[in-house]
Amino acid sequence: MSGRRDADGPSEEAEAGGGEAAAAGPGDGVHAGAVRAEDPSRTDAGAAGAWRRRERGQGDGVPVTTDDPARDPADDPAHDAAERRFRRQAAVVLAVLAAVILAVAALSTPWRVLAAGPPDPARDFTAAEIARARAFDAATSLPSYLGLALTLAFAALLVATPFGAKVLGRLKGPWWVRVVLGVLVLTAIVEAVRWPLGVWFETLLRDYGLSTQDWAGWTADRLKSLGVEAFLLCLMLLVLVGLARRVRRWWIPAAVGAGALTVVMSFVYPVVFEPLFNDFTSMPQGSLRDNLLDMAERDGVPVQDVLVADASRRTTALNAYVSGFGATRRIVVYDTLLKAPQPQVELVVAHELGHAEADDVLYGTLVGAMGAALGAVLLFLVFGAVRRRAGVTSIADPRAVGVVMGLMTLGSLIMGPAQNVISRHVEARADVHALDLTRDPATFIAMQKRLAITNISDLSPDPVEYVLYASHPSSPERIALARSWAELNGVPVP
């Protein structure tokens, strides 16, 4: 239910599934080629004809760049003119996509949910609870900011220097082998730097009673997460470099593919990737299960099942979420949450149903798909400005894997604060939905206090942390909203 930093940079607990699962969150590490092309400077009729056929999408399968790292296609006047034309086309597409994304975000985001009074942590939390939250925030800030700084530094190293090209230039084999090896090598370098910070952060979680894992379990989870990340990066970069080797306007199919992958991941993640990290069992028959299914039916949100995740094997934190679409949609409740009184569990799920009822995951997925497409177009436009400094000739060069990973990381970090602003408003709307559905602000406030105390949420985040990390309103803000809702709806104010 609440966002949290980790030592690898900004991250948050998965909540509402689907859309967030598909996308990498800011600070998740560096997401990191030369390919052959017929040289457009050739003046014989055969070469010119082949080049024109390829430009029209009728290529003969011969790659469109060169494997020679010293040979830069952009040095050819004909190639340079074509690139300028392509850049103008890409700029138009970029502007259209950006306008559509801004319009959808502006129209679908609930900017004015409910006027709430000022948050007052001292009204609902004891001095000891406030002090504990501040101490935890102070303890975790250093590894969190170090992780963010290292992520930025390594991404900048890959984009602004030939470091990545030099490292990956040592790799041998066909282009696709070098792409895969490049992803694995750079991912391993990043993880070697981040691993000590992860150990530091996990130690802090144990000190504060938030982690229940042993080191073997923690290591297994981290390696699985790393494997999923590397697999998806390999898939994306193989497609990207492969397209660049075959199609001069590679950014067009790359944009379509990036958007499609985002949508597919929203459907696939709950049933393929989530089970890698948790065991899910159907909630036993009983009043809680019946009430949750009845609440979903009253809300007009069909769900396939109510599942319990074995989160207690790694954490004491409380959470629940609704993930998936259609036949894959299900309510997921952490087993740690089941220790709370049943009305509080129902209220947490009512909040999550608010996301489903408002189609937040659907809108998030669509905006994410358009954002991924925009990213592919922007990559084409930005790459030309950094490729010489990075020591590569084109996206089709397998050595460019590092540049792409660095640019992806920087893009994610830059977009993080804007995504957080939208997320906080969406979460506030889901809170109001939960209050409308249950009409129980007293239980809502009791649940928010339980979540804040158990998860050691930051009760008074400073402005910088709020901008960088806060995907949800703070607990005092949510409590103030519940009291405002009670006043507006004629319900006794807790």
TrEMBL record:
Residues 284-485 form the Peptidase M48 domain. Residues 68-80 have a biased composition (Basic and acidic residues). Residues 1-80 are annotated as: Disordered. Coiled coil: none annotated. Pfam families: Peptidase_M48, Peptidase_M48_N. GO terms for molecular function: metal ion binding; metalloendopeptidase activity. Binds 1 zinc ion per subunit. The lineage of its organism: Bacteria, Bacillati, Actinomycetota, Actinomycetes, Streptosporangiales. This is M48 family peptidase.
